[in-house]
Amino acid sequence: MQRKRSLSSLIVTVTVFAMLMSGMSMAHDDDSGFKDVPSDSWFYDAVLTMASLNAVDGFSDGLFKPDEPVTVAQFLKMLCAAVIPDRAEPALALSDPNDWSEFFYYAALDYALIRESEFTLDQLDLPLSRYDAALLISRASEKILQESAPLRSDVNAIIADSGELPAKYVHAVQLCYSKGISGGFEDGSFNGEKPLTRAQGVVMVMRLTLPEVRNLPSPEPSPATRGAVTTSASIIATVPPAASGSPVLPTPSNSPVKDAAAFVAEETVIIGDSLTHGLYLYGKMREPTYLFSTGMSTSNALSKSFETNSGKKLKLIDALSGEDYKAVYILLGINELGSDVEAYSTRYGKLIDKIKETLPDATIYIESVLPVSKKKSNSGGSFTKANVLKFNDALMKLAEDKEVEYLDVYAIFADEDGYLPPDSTWDGVHLNTKYYAVWAKHLSS
Could you tell me if 249 and 352 lie in one domain? Predict the structure, then answer.
C-alpha cells in the first residue's frame, strides 16, 4: 500500500531544515563528520541532512567519497530512509551488516519504487545511472509523496539533450528539472547514461524531501502560463480542466476485455491522433512510447511525421525500426468518420501489414473509435454515433481478418444510449483531463 511520509519523519525533516537554514551545527560544529566533506562544499548540507536521517554512511577510513559512483543499494537506502522511514528504520538495527542492501531492495519493491525486471539482487553493487536515479526520484515524488505539480511548459528547452532522452526516462527527467531536483550539468544537458555520484545522489534526495531547497531553473513561467504543457497540438493545449471530483462513468452492458499478453509499459508503443496526445499528456502513464499527431488518419499514417515523447518528429516506420516493442496500440479513425468505411478499412489493413513487417513479434491492438456526445452527434457533420458504430464494426472485422487484437475502448466511455457523457468531454469528441486516466488504466490492466 502506498503511504505518505509519517508525521515523525516530517518533524525530523523540518527540524533538520530549520537547523541548516539557521547555521546551527547538528553534531560536528563546522564539519560533516567526513574528512572529505568540508563545510563550503556544494553537497555539505545534503550530506548533513541525509546523515541525520540515517540515510547515508561513510567508509571505514572516515571518508564520504562524494565523487565515487553511488551504487544501486546505496541510493535505495538514501531514498527509502528519506521517504518511507517507517519501513526503513528497522534496517538500522539488523545484526548482520550484509542484510541492509537486501532490506532496502525489498522495501523499494514493496513501494513500487523499482521493479524486479529493472534491478536484481545481483545488481545492487553496480553503479546507478543518472537516468535510473531520475526514474526512482519521479516514482517517489508521485507514488509516495503524492506530489502533483505539473511539468514546466518550457522544460524541453531547459534540458539541452532533451531530444536524446530514451522514452522510458523522458517524464522522469522532465519532472526532476521541473521540480528543481536536478539541473543537469553546466551546459544544461542531463547526460543520463553517466553514473550518478554519491554527492549528486544525496543532493537529489535532499531536494526531493525538502521542496524549500530545490533549485528551480530560470526563467520561471509566468502565473498565466504556469502548469501549461508545450505542445504543437493547440487543440490539446486548450483543454479546460475537468470538473472537481473523480469521474464516474456509466457501466457498459458489455464490459470490454483485453485478452492478450500482460501489459509491460516500457515495451509498448501507442500510436494515434490528438486523442492519443491527450492520453500522453493526462493519462499519468508515461513509460510507454507515444507517437501522436493532430489530424492523423490512416491515409497519411505512413507518410506524415509523428511527434514522440521527447518532442522529436519521426516517420512511423523510422520510429519503429530497430526497436523491440512487444505491444502496439493504434487509435485512428475519429478524423475519418466522413469517409468511405471500406476505403478506411483497406488503408488500416495496409498500415497493420507494414507494422507487422517492422515488428514481427509484437502483439497489435486496434483500439475502437471512441464515442461522441449526443450534442455533437446531433449537430450535423460526420461526428455521429452511427458513423462511429459503422467504423467500429469494420475494425472488429479487420482485427479478425488480420489476426490482431480488437480493444473496445468505446464501451468504456459510452453511456446507456451509446454517447460520450457530457461531463466527460469539452467539445463532444475529446475527453476532459481526468478521463484520460480512466483510459490509461484500462490499457494497462
Answer: yes
Length of the chain equals 445
Asked if the structure places residue 389 within a domain, the reply is yes
User: Of the residues 167, 182, 213, which one is the last residue of a structural domain?
Assistant: 213
The more confidently predicted of residues 203 and 286 is 203
Residue at 220 is within a domain: no
pLDDT tens, position by position, 71-129 = 999 999 999 988 887 665 444 444 454 568 888 888 888 888 888 888 988 999 999 99
**Residue finishing a domain among 164, 179, 213:** 213
Domain that holds residue 181: 7-213
Task: Pick the most confident of 180-194, 230-244, 346-360.
Answer: 346-360
DSSP character string of 217-251: -SSPPPTTTTT----S-HHHHTPPPPPSS---PPP
Q: Is residue 170 part of a domain?
A: yes
Helix, coil or strand: residue 314: strand
- For residues 124 and 244, membership in a common domain is answered with no
Look at residue 200 and tell me if it is in a domain.
Answer: yes
For residues 301 and 315, what is the distance between their CA atoms, to the nearest angstrom? 8
Task: Kindly write down the DSSP assignment for every residue of 37-60, as one continuous string.
Answer: --TTSTTHHHHHHHHHTT-----T
Beta bridge partners of 207: none
What gap in Å lies between CA 176 and CA 230, rounded to an integer? 17
84/380 Cα distance (integer angstroms): 55
Question: Distance (Å, rounded) from C-alpha 225 to C-alpha 155?
Answer: 13
- d(CA 183, CA 298) in angstroms, rounded, equals 41
What DSSP assignment string belongs to 172-197? HHHHHHHTTS---STTS---TTSBPB
Strands across the sheet with 327-331, in order?
313-315, 305-307, 289-292, 268-272, 327-331, 363-367, 405-407
Please spell the DSSP secondary structure of 393-417, one letter per residue: HHHHHHHHHHT-EEE--HHHH--TT
The structure's pTM equals 0.49
288 grid coordinates: 510507454
Q: At what angle do helices 198-209 and 130-139 cross, to 10 degrees?
A: 20
Same domain, residue pair 13 and 98? yes
CA–CA separation, 240 vs 431, rounded Å?
10
Number of domains in the chain: 2
